[in-house]
Each structure stands twice: as structure tokens, then as C-alpha cells.
Amino acid sequence: MQTKKQSFIEAITNTAVGFGISYASTFLIFPMVGMHTSAKTNFIITVYFTIISIIRSYVIRRWFNKKTKLVTYPNNEPFLLYCFECEIDMPVTEKDGYMSCSNCGLIHR
Ligand SMILES: [Zn+2]
User: Fold this and answer.
1) Fewer Cβ atoms within 10 A, N terminus or C terminus of the chain?
2) Does residue 24 sit in the same domain as residue 56?
């Protein structure tokens, strides 16, 4: 399971790499569809879609997080089970009477 810092670094890297690929792609796709733009215009369009993408990712991630509630003790401490896939004690989620690893999804039977 990732720490919050690792998740943040991954998100920044993902966004930076995505921005670079998208910006480079604008010089290919725009002329192909008959749009003749400047590098500055391509940059502004890429910034716009990058912001849209960040908002979309955030909303979808929060939505999925809300749907997967961790199993907790009455004191709200997460209930841990050893996961044979992750090879470490992991918090679990519960669905349809089965508990599964919150990281890899392995079902504990
Ligand atoms: Zn696991």
C-alpha cells in the first residue's frame, strides 16, 4: 500500500508525463484535423485539458473511496488481516459478506 507521500509523488509524475505527451501530441493532431495553431495556443489548450483531467481524477477517486469503506473496530481502528498477495497485514473492506484486501482486492475466505 502506498503512503500519502508516495501517492502524491505518483500523481504529480502522472500529471507531468501526461502533460508532456499531450502537449507534444497537439503538434501532430491539430494539423491533421485542419487546425493551424501556435505553440502558445497548444500550450493553453493542454493546460485547460490537464486541469479538467485533474478534477475528473479527483472526483472519481473520492467517489470510489466513499464506496469502499474499511472494516474497523468500534474504536475506528482499521481491522487488519494478513494478505497473502501483499505479504503484509492490510486493512480490509467488506462486500457481500466477504472481506477483501483494501490494497489488492484479494478475497479472504
Ligand atoms: Zn493485498
Assistant:
1) C
2) yes
